[in-house]
Design brief:
By secondary structure, this protein is mainly alpha-helical. The protein has one domain: Membrane-bound Lytic Murein Transglycosylase D, Chain A (Roll), CATH 3.10.350. It contains 2 helices and no strands. The N and C termini lie far apart (22 Å).
Length: 45
Amino acid sequence: MQSGDTLSGIAAQFGVTVEAIEALNPGIKPETLQIGAVLKIPPAQ
């Protein structure tokens, strides 16, 4: 994650849903994302 990244922006960039990212990353909360956090991204739909 970089400064200014949001889950919705990342989802749009990779062609997936926010819900799919959240499902693959249990415990991740959009309001507490940290710079440098590593997220698993599901395959594009």
